[in-house]
Amino acid sequence: MDYEGPRPPRRPAVREAIDFTPTVVQFFGSTIHCRRLSDSPALLAHPSSTRDLLPPFATRESPYDCLCTRFLKCCVSKSRGTVNCLQWFPDGRRLITGTSNGDFTLWDGIDFGFFDLKQLNHSAVGALTRTHS
């Protein structure tokens, strides 16, 4: 066994973070001159229209119009299982998911790394409700 010296340092993993602030700024800028939210201009089916995306609360009648599928990604926790329900915290920085394994996972809503994993049920989690207490 030959000694080849110290190993070179590893490069840190690059984690992409998504900033949702521009969509909120776009919402306030585009709705100043609109009497109703339905008067706001429609999005075109073109990649250049991603800068005109609005936050989901801006189109309550069809919130799926605000999804930008370009930035969707799959995040895997330690125990694999399908996610049955999720609930965002009011500050928008964290979310909690309930899986088919009975696990509750607390995720970071900015870079989507998971904070904590707890198995509290032995059956699937079907619904989540957040309260202030």
Automatic annotation (TrEMBL):
InterPro entries: Pfs2-like, WD40/YVTN_repeat-like_dom_sf, WD40_repeat_dom_sf, WD40_rpt. WD repeats lie at residues 76-108. It comes from the Eukaryota. One of its GO terms (cellular component) is mRNA cleavage and polyadenylation specificity factor complex. Keywords: WD repeat. GO terms for biological process: mRNA 3'-end processing. Transmembrane segments: none annotated. This is Anaphase-promoting complex subunit 4 WD40 domain-containing protein. The lineage of its organism: Eukaryota, Sar, Alveolata, Colpodellida, Vitrellaceae.
